[in-house]
Automatic annotation (TrEMBL):
Domain of life, per lineage: Eukaryota
Matching SUPFAM superfamilies: GroES-like, NAD(P)-binding Rossmann-fold domains
PANTHER family, A to Z: QUINONE OXIDOREDUCTASE (PTHR44154:SF1)
Annotated keywords: NADP
Organism: Acanthamoeba castellanii (strain ATCC 30010 / Neff)
Molecular-function annotations in GO: oxidoreductase activity
Name of the protein in its database record: Oxidoreductase, zincbinding dehydrogenase superfamily protein
Domain Enoyl reductase (ER): 18-326
InterPro entries attached to this UniProt entry: ADH-like_C, ER, GroES-like_sf, NAD(P)-bd_dom_sf, Zinc-ADH_QOR/CCCR
Length: 338
């Protein structure tokens, strides 16, 4: 099968810290399942900004190379165990394993998965719509509920609001939590889209200087900041919070570091959380919302898997709203209509 692997920057079979990697298409064997595994067919895979961070050398910890990329996927049709072949239906994997980082991911026609990680996909949600919901809406839901403890009527700031996490976080903050949403984006064209998805206020920052100073436009200060960008906006998000506010850091789109003023955290008695992944309960809730059309999975574009490089360029150019989705040649690409 043809798969797209992360290669280069190796030292002792592992990615060197800070080393830039390449995405290379290779013919590789179909993976063989072991104990507790199934072999499943990939129908669609979302393109996450984490792929770009890894390619640019921003991976926070060494991992084995070469490694098939991709971690947002829906699988279908059949599961091949070591001793039998059987139908397993439409399934997704919860992140009990770090696909595309510690084990081979889904930029491939087939992937090996743990049986315990598979979750059914509702019939009303297509593969293209559902493939990225754990890593976007599921992650946002966990951050807003488990860490931020967002309450009705509270003000929440969402940075990177047109990204995969951000645009679904807006919908959840409004429809699940009843919050007042302040969204941050990079252009007026994107601002109009964010208002359509439920943002009450939109702040446009088109320069680096504006990203570092947008807190002056957040009035009154917010109760919660959901940080989906990371280093470029972190300090301004902190300064946007009211005393006793909560900051939840979900994303970091660059490999850079940022200095935080401890005195500001102390003076305002702020709470800061890191948030990663989603639970089965989180995933089940966002899938149910999507099936009931209470949450709209935002698909920017669907491309063949062989155009993975083009998908990465689209993301790097900051023109994507929601998610770009890749589909192997055998996959169906229809999406439900809203």
């Amino acid at each position: 099968m043809k798969a797209y692997r992360l290669e280069g920057g190796e030292e002792g079979g592992r990615a060197r810290a800070g080393a830039k990697l390449s995405l290379v298409g290779r013919e590789v064997p179909v993976p063989q399942p072991g104990r507790g595994d199934v072999l499943v067919r990939v129908e669609a895979v979302g393109v996450c900004h984490r792929e770009l961070v890894e390619l640019r050398g921003g991976h926070p910890a060494p991992f084995a190379l070469p490694l098939i990329a991709g971690h947002e996927e829906w699988w279908n049709r059949w599961a091949k165990l070591p001793t039998e072949t059987s139908q397993c239906g439409r399934v997704v994997a919860v992140a009990s394993e770090y696909y595309g980082t510690t084990v081979d991911g889904s930029y491939a026609p087939y992937v090996r998965a743990k049986v315990k990680s598979l979750v059914p996909l509702p019939d009303a949600v297509s593969f293209v719509e559902g493939c990225f919901l754990m890593c976007t809406a599921g992650v946002a839901l966990r951050g807003l509920r488990f860490h931020a403890d967002l309450r009705p009527g509270e003000r929440v700031l969402i940075t990177g609001a047109t990204g995969g996490v951000g645009i679904h976080a807006i919908q959840l903050a409004k429809r699940v939590f009843g919050a007042h949403v302040v969204a941050l984006t990079s252009s007026e064209a994107k601002a109009a889209v964010l208002r359509e998805y439920g943002a009450d206020e939109v702040i446009v920052c088109s320069t680096k200087e504006q990203l570092q100073q947008f807190h002056h436009s957040v009035r009154p200060p917010v109760d919660v900041a959901l940080e989906c960008v990371g280093t470029p906006t972190l300090n301004s998000s902190i300064r946007s919070l009211r005393p006793n506010g909560r900051l939840v850091i979900i994303g970091n789109v660059t490999a850079g570091k940022e200095t935080i003023n401890p005195g500001l955290l102390i003076l305002k008695e702020l709470k800061i959380f890191g948030s990663s992944g989603a639970s089965r309960e989180d995933l089940a809730q966002v899938l149910a919302m999507a099936a009931e059309r209470k949450l709209k999975p935002v698909v920017h574009k669907v491309l063949p898997l062989d155009l993975a490089h083009q998908a990465h360029h689209l993301l790097a150019d900051k023109g994507v709203i929601g998610r770009v989705v890749l589909v192997p040649s055998h996959a169906r690409t229809t999406t439900a209509k809203f």
